[in-house]
Amino acid sequence: MGADHVRRLDRGVSGARVAAVADPDTGRAEEAAAGIEGVTVHAEAEAALDAPGVEAVLIASPGPAHEEALLAAFARGLPVLCEKPMVPDSDGALRVVEAEARGGRRLAQVGFMRRYDAEYRRLKRVLDGGRVGRPLMLHCVHRNVSSPPGFTSAMLIDSSVSHEIDAARWLLGQELTAVTVLRPRPSAGAPQGLLDPQFVLFETDGGALVDVEIFVNCGFGYQVRCEAVCEHGSARVGEDNGVLLTTAGTAGAEVPQDYLVRFADAYDREVQAWVDATRQGRVTGPTAWDGYAASAVAEAGIRALESGRRTPVDLAPRPALYGTSR
Amino acid sequence: MGADHVRRLDRGVSGARVAAVADPDTGRAEEAAAGIEGVTVHAEAEAALDAPGVEAVLIASPGPAHEEALLAAFARGLPVLCEKPMVPDSDGALRVVEAEARGGRRLAQVGFMRRYDAEYRRLKRVLDGGRVGRPLMLHCVHRNVSSPPGFTSAMLIDSSVSHEIDAARWLLGQELTAVTVLRPRPSAGAPQGLLDPQFVLFETDGGALVDVEIFVNCGFGYQVRCEAVCEHGSARVGEDNGVLLTTAGTAGAEVPQDYLVRFADAYDREVQAWVDATRQGRVTGPTAWDGYAASAVAEAGIRALESGRRTPVDLAPRPALYGTSR
Amino acid sequence: MGADHVRRLDRGVSGARVAAVADPDTGRAEEAAAGIEGVTVHAEAEAALDAPGVEAVLIASPGPAHEEALLAAFARGLPVLCEKPMVPDSDGALRVVEAEARGGRRLAQVGFMRRYDAEYRRLKRVLDGGRVGRPLMLHCVHRNVSSPPGFTSAMLIDSSVSHEIDAARWLLGQELTAVTVLRPRPSAGAPQGLLDPQFVLFETDGGALVDVEIFVNCGFGYQVRCEAVCEHGSARVGEDNGVLLTTAGTAGAEVPQDYLVRFADAYDREVQAWVDATRQGRVTGPTAWDGYAASAVAEAGIRALESGRRTPVDLAPRPALYGTSR
Amino acid sequence: MGADHVRRLDRGVSGARVAAVADPDTGRAEEAAAGIEGVTVHAEAEAALDAPGVEAVLIASPGPAHEEALLAAFARGLPVLCEKPMVPDSDGALRVVEAEARGGRRLAQVGFMRRYDAEYRRLKRVLDGGRVGRPLMLHCVHRNVSSPPGFTSAMLIDSSVSHEIDAARWLLGQELTAVTVLRPRPSAGAPQGLLDPQFVLFETDGGALVDVEIFVNCGFGYQVRCEAVCEHGSARVGEDNGVLLTTAGTAGAEVPQDYLVRFADAYDREVQAWVDATRQGRVTGPTAWDGYAASAVAEAGIRALESGRRTPVDLAPRPALYGTSR
Predict the structure, then answer these.
(1) Do the chains contact at D251 and A253, CB–CB below 8 Å?
(2) Where is the domain boundary, D228, D254, D280?
(3) B173 three-state secondary structure
(4) Chain A residues closer than 8 Å to D257 by CB
(5) Strands A108-111 and A80-83, how do they pair?
(6) pTM more than 0.90
(7) Domain final residue pick, B62, B86, B113
(8) H or E element in which residue D7 lies
(9) Quick one: D130 and D249 in the same domain?
C-alpha cells in the first residue's frame, strides 16, 4: 500500500511531489522512491518528517506504528493522511484525538476511502437531500473472494467491517451505540477455525439499525453493497449502475442529463494518457487517420441523409505510417 | 472546452504544466490562464507554439481552425492532442494526414474520448479477447436531452454520430464502407425543421452492420449505449454496471475479484482531495475522531463476537475541535 | 379471499366445480356463489361439507375458525386446502397435526403460496441443485405499502413474517430453532404505537442464519426479496428477472433457451381468453385482418430480402368489419 | 403444437371440453385425444367440424391447410382460433378476410400470442396511457438458439419476424408501409447458405420506424426484446423485470403496490396444483406440520419481540406421517 501511494502521489495526482520516503527496510524504500527526482530515503519516520521539502505526510505503515508517527507529525504541525486503522486500539486512538485537540487545529485525515467512492457519495447526497426521509436501516454486504493468511475471526470485525463502521457513521451522521455479532456455521470455504461469515448488527444513537454480512472467503467475488431503507424510499449502491432509488411506485436509477457527467472520467484519462505518452516521446490513441476517416464517413452520412439513399464511403489509400491498427 | 482542458492540464492530470494559452479573444485566454504560474497568453496560435517551454499542444479551438494549427504544430515537430472533429471537411483532414505521413512520425492524437471510457475499454477487451466470436452487428443509441441552438439535421451526423463512427471503427477494427440514413417523423420535442431522431446504418469492410439511433432532443436523459452482437454471445455497455455479457445460457456482468479494482478511483480521489486541501492549508475528510470511533466500535464488536451478546459501545466525550460533522 | 378462491375454482383453474359455499353471513355466500350452476349455500361449514358433490374443501375463513373446520373435514376423510395461518395458536395447530397423524394419511395442504411462485421455485431448484453449495444465510425483505387498520406489532411477525418462516424452512429444508427481534425507531409513516419496521433473525438447526426486514408501512411499494448466500455463490429473487445468480466471477441470470419457456403463460392466457370470449358469443383478439396484414408485410419483406431494396407494402382496403382497432 | 393445444384445452384452461380431434394421420389424432372423455377422432377437418358437441374450432395444422379449414368453419358459423400464419400467402389471407367480412360478423382470432404476454400487455398499456408520448421508433431483437432443419432465409421473415410485424402493428396501432432488409455477413453458427442474422426495417403510416434484429442461430439463448422510443420517454420489455421506463431523469420499473399483483400467478398455480393432486387422490404441498411449525415459530417471534431477547423455538416431535420432507 505504501509503494502504491508513493506512485499515486508521484504520477496519479496533481499538485504533489514526493520529497522523502521512510521504511525500516530501506531497500524497500529505495525501490518505492526509484526514479523520483530529489527524493530522500530514510529508515526512521521522524527523519523523513524532518527532510527538506516535506510539507505533509502520508502514513501507510502497519497500524501499530501509526500512533507514534501521527504524534510526531502533530509535533511538527504537519498535515497527515493516515491509512486505516488510524490506531488499532481505541486507547491509542484516543491519545491521538486528544493530542490533535490540544493543538487546536485539525491536521489528520483518516484513510476511509469509501467516502470518496462515486457511488457512496451519491448515496450520501440522496440521504442528505431528504427526498427519501430519515434512514431506518442500513443493510450492508461486504464479501471478499478469500482472506489472506493469518486472518483471524476478530479481523473480520476490525479490519473488514471497520469500513462499514465508518461508512454507517458517515452516511447516517450518527454514532453507533451497541453491537451484536451472529455466527452462522462457517463456510466450508473458510480456513479451519475461522468464523466466516459473520452477521454484525449495530444500533445507533438515532434509533437506526445497521446490519452487515461480512464474508471474507465467499469465493465468488468482491462485493460491497449498501441499502439504506428510509421513511419514504430506499436507496442502494454496489450492484447497479449508480444509486438504485425506490420511491412511491417506482424503482430506478438517475439518468445523467449531460455528457460531461457521463464521460468526465474519460476526458481525464484521455488527457492523462496523452501527457504520459508525450513525456515518453510517444504518440498513442486515435490517429489523424482516424480523424480523417470520421470526417469522410460523416460527409457520406450527410449525403445519405439528404438523398435518402445508401451512400458508399470513399476513403483515400491509408498511408503506411498508420499501419493497420486503429 | 478549451478552458476546461486548461484546468485539466493545470490541476486534473499529473506531469504537465500549462506554458501558453492562445485565443483570438485574449480576454478569454487571460481568464483561462488566471492563476497559472509562468503562463503566457497569445492571440495567435502560432505565437503560442513558439512560446518558451511549449513541448506539446492541445487544440480545442472551433473545428475550422484545426487544420492550420495542426500543420503549424507539425512544422515545429510538436505532439498534438486535437479535439474532434480533427478537421471538419474530409479534404482538409486528408491534407493533415498527408502532412503527418510526409513527416514520417506520428504527432497527432484526435480527441475521441470514448476510447478512454472505462466501459468502452472493457467492451473492446471482451471483443478482442475472442470469447464472444466475430461481431456481426453493433446496436448503438445516442440520446441527448436537447440540442443547442443552431443545431442542424446534418450536425446529428457529423457532430453527434461521429462519436459512434469512431467507436465502431475502433471496436470492430474495420472501416465503414456505406451509410444509409432513415428519418422517422420528427419528435414534437425537436425544434421546427430539425430531423430528429434519425436512424443511421453503416456497413463495414468486414461485413458487419452498425445501426445508430441518434436523438438529440429526447428530453429524458443523456444515454449512450452499444451492444455488440457476436457469433457466440452479445456484450453491451451503457446501461448496466460494466459490460453485460450474454453467452450460452446466461446473461451477466463480471464481478470484480479485488477491492483495488472496485475502489481504484476512490483511492485516487481521496489522495487528490487531500493534496488539494493541504495546499490550501485546510484539512477535510474523515477526522481523527472518526478513526477513534471506528477503533472503539470495532473493539466492542470483537467483544460481542467472543461473548455472543449485545455489547454497548463506550465513546469518550467528543472534543469540540471535531464539531458535530462527520 | 374466500370469494376470490370461489371465482378461481369456478373459472381460473380446470378440473374443479364449486359444489357448496359456506359463510355465517349467508348473503355473502350467496354473492360469491352467484351464477355457479348447481351450487348450494350454507351458514355452517359442516353443512357444506355434507352437501352433495363435495369431494374436497378449501378453507378461507378467519384463522380462529380453521381448527374446527379442519377437524370436521378430517372426520369425513376430505382433502383440504387451508389458507394460512393453518391455526393461529400452536397448541391448536398441534391438535390438527395429531388428528391428521392419527388418521394415518395426509389430507391437509396449507396455503403458503410462495412455494408456487415461479421465482421462488427456481430459487429452490438452484439451492437443491447443489451448484452454489450449502446455504449459510438468507437475507429477506418483506415490505408493504401500508398496513390495514388494527394491525399490531405482533402481527408483523405472525401475519407477515410467517411467509418468510415457511419460505425459509422450505428453501433450506431446516427447522428454525431460535429467533431474535430488533426494533429500530419506528418510521414516521407507521401508525402511532406500531413497531414498524422490525428486523427479525432466525437460527436454524443446520447452522444457517435467516434475517428478515419486515416493514409494513414503507409507503413505496410491495417488495418481497430473498437472497440465499451459499458456500459457492449467491442466488436472489424478487427484484431481477428470475434468479440472479452470482458464482465465481460473474453475476447473472439464466437466459431461456426456448420460446415455450418464455411464452408459456402467453399461450395459456391466449387460449383461456379465446374460450372465455367464445362462451359469451364474442370474438376478441387478433383479427383475420391482422392475419392478412402480417402475410402481406412478410411477403414484401421477402421481396426486400431478395432485392436488397426498400419495398413498399400493398394492402387491400380494410373491410368495415375490422373497424380501426387492431 | 396441435397436441399441446389439445392438452391445454383439456387441462390447462377452464370452460372448454375437447369434443373432436382431426389429423390426416389419425394415429396421431388418437394419441392427442387419449384419455379425453367423449372425444371423437377424424382424418378430415370438415368431419370434425360436424362432430357432435363442436361449438368452436382451434386450428393448429400446417399453414397451407388453414384457408380451407377457416372457410369451412365460417360456413358453419363456428368461432375459430387459428395458429399463425393465418394463411401463408397474402392472396389466400385476403380471401379469408373477404369471406368473414361477407358473413358480417367476426369469427376468427389469429394466434399472435405476444398480445397475451404479461410484459407486452404492460408495454401496450404504457404506450396507450400517453405518458411517454407518441412512439417514434421500436427497436426489436428476436433471437433463437438455433433454427430447425430446412429453415430458409425467407423464413426468418415470414416465420420469425412475423411476430414483430404483428406486435409492431398492435403496439403502435399503425400499418406498416415499407420494408428494407439488411444482410450482414452470416454468422459462422448459421447453416451454410442461410442469411442469418438479418436486420429488418419497417416504416409505418404514422411515420414511425421499426427495426428488428432477427438472429435464429445466435447460440446463446432465446431473447425477445422491444424498446419503444417515444417523444417523452422510452419503454422496454424483454430483459428487465417488467417494463423499464425511462422518463425525465430516471430509468426504472414500476414497483407493484399489492401482493395480489405480485403473487397472482402463485395463487392460481397453488389452487390448480391442489385440484390436480386431489383428483388423483394425492396430497402435496405444504403440510399441517408446516402449518404447525409456522405457528410455533411465530409465537416464539412474538415473545422475542416483547422481551427484546433471543428466544428458542420449541417444537413437538414430528409425527412419522410428515417424514422429513417439507
Answers:
(1) yes
(2) D254
(3) coil
(4) 249
(5) parallel
(6) no
(7) B113
(8) helix D2-7
(9) yes
